[in-house]
């Protein structure tokens, strides 16, 4: 693990016009779906198989000189070889010719079913998803009816009524498959219907038709393609099954009819069963593999993960002692560097050489803009970085013991797990998404106390109620029994703060704890945190972009830019006399106390409304 | 003020149908009245759920008008049809909060900017020239045209969204929290851009935000919304510095300042204010 780090860094702000390809440069991360499809082995195999069958169907007359329907009763059930490449069937027809011409019909049957299903499912799904209302209701009801019909029985009934025709069967089967497309389309459309870019198009005056074709259709394209690959395989199965049961049209050569014939003569000429079964298996398998490969290439993001070098010697050995004279720090981060491997090789460094410490009864703020590495630093301490993150350098020690010793490339969960939740608390940014909607707040609060602290259920409830009261919740009992959706965002954040302090931690890491809250609620939540901190004498790390929050809460401040620490110091020093140009720039971006441009304008023009 | 009033919203009520079949409709706006003069900015402040975004959406025709009237440029647009809206879109535009979802991820920036032009029948070389001009105006490089939104940072995307709003040289742009998803330094630059555009083109803004500092920075007049009503409105300096209504006072006192000592004093003032209100 050497530092072969080419580090293209995330560009946080709006780079001025000159700084060309900046921002979250997407083109680094993704290659085209087709290329990814060809690169995946399953995709390639599937495409080769299917391309082979399509070629076979197209070139059928060139591949054989035999008539697939020419019966020769003098040459029944011949073994492969001679005039008949794969032998003959029970009517003396050439198996190779039937196989080749049968591929035409098999593919055409699959295509008919898919086209019919798409033709019904896609437009109705678009309309139902986009407009909703009565059509949506009726269409949902109809699809439910269709889906409850057993396909094979419907097909048998149709065959009994109108006679054996593979085309009619496939049209009916397409109708029966259409609910799959309908549901897929409807769900996809509903999810984009309320996207802001659709609203923007509406404001621009775009007609519904154009909105659907431009903005909505592109979203359903990928799932439809994937579904079609699967539906094609399914149609071939059903068409072949009908033929096999002897319900198909006996006058046309299909693989199903061939399997049926081979099966009847399995004791007389076993090999004749093989070819058609093999063809069906290969094609269906090809479609299934294609569907899977398409899903991977169209929907999933590539995730790059480096293979970790196995550490020399046993990993669990040596509990390294921390540097003498630093044991008294509650938390100490030394020269931390965090990197992510890139798809094109190399690594992207997101935290670079960060060192700081936090003592008991101290509030430290980490300030920076998006992409500055402030959250990554916090997550490294918590051991909550994604799997593919690498701690390329540095060490983290908590209360006199390493959680990440020098030379280790990732957080040892076994060392951190007993600390997290118990001695290190965490307050997240989005209160709502951090509460499980399926459980009451009380259950979520008291459960960790039962499992981590070993309290009885009753004692845990008692304590949970106390905690809820201590974070300023007016009616703890009601909140205890409420579900997360029944409380406001500010209340939810208080619940999480109560959760963070429930096991009496020494350190709390708060990641943008008030960013999602209204300013009046923010003030109250900060009051709660400050009061708790002063009462419990805990250390707090607040990750924030808001200097107002820093001024309100922190004793010391770290300013981060592009993964590095650019300035650290006492809060007054940083806010009153910032040294680093970046800190100055950030502070000067604050609007508070500035003379607004419009005031100047208003004074010069008619500033006399009302 | 009456001669060059661009937008008048009079006693606007917006209700959404209840979730259950015969449930009582949910009233989001309870009789809201505002006015925006030509070339002016009305800042609309309020907390989440106050109805400020709904007011903006009602003006744009994206929220149902139950009662009251919206008059734009002398024309009643409270119940404008789709066809009227198409004509209106030339003069009435929008910049949304989230630059990550307000741009279609699968279209290039050039296509996004050409879309409103195409609707008004501007295509081909004329549209291309206009797109270039727009990119210039929002200080984005020309090669942005052939790139897709995900290649840009948040601030740059918001510039694209502003350029799209400007494409048809509108008279009014509804800015719905246009900077709240952006970083501090980016935020300041986008606000400067909006002000610069107002100075050169004379466009009016309905500027919706939860941040009093931001609203103070860009507005001529400010209206404060609370629970679907406007509790205070008036000249920007007055409302944002010496507000009359207790709610606005609370809002002002709650926003923290980047100075520990002043912030401590402000905190005390906020507590005193809360105590006084409770008494």
TrEMBL record, chain A:
Residues 1-27 are annotated as: Disordered. Its main location: membrane. Keywords: ATP-binding, Cell membrane, Membrane, Nucleotide-binding, Transmembrane, Transmembrane helix, Transport. The chain crosses the membrane at residues 43-63, 105-131, 151-177, 219-242, 273-294. The keyword Ribonucleoprotein does not apply. InterPro entries: AAA+_ATPase, ABC_Ni/Peptide_Import, ABC_transporter-like_ATP-bd, ABC_transporter-like_CS, MetI-like, MetI-like_sf, Oligopep_ABC_C, OppC_N. This is Dipeptide/oligopeptide/nickel ABC transporter permease/ATP-binding protein. Residues 103-295 form the ABC transmembrane type-1 domain.
From TrEMBL, chain B:
Keywords: ATP-binding, Nucleotide-binding, Transport. GO terms for molecular function: ATP binding. Residues 252-279 are annotated as: Disordered. InterPro entries: AAA+_ATPase, ABC_transp_ATP-bind, ABC_transporter-like_ATP-bd, ABC_transporter-like_CS, Oligopep_ABC_C, P-loop_NTPase. PROSITE patterns: ABC_TRANSPORTER_1 (PS00211), ABC_TRANSPORTER_2 (PS50893). Residues 7-252 form the ABC transporter domain. The keyword ATP-binding applies. It holds the Pfam family ABC_tran. PANTHER family: D,D-DIPEPTIDE TRANSPORT ATP-BINDING PROTEIN DDPF-RELATED, TRANSPORT ATP-BINDING PROTEIN. Belongs to the ABC transporter superfamily. This is ATP-binding cassette domain-containing protein.
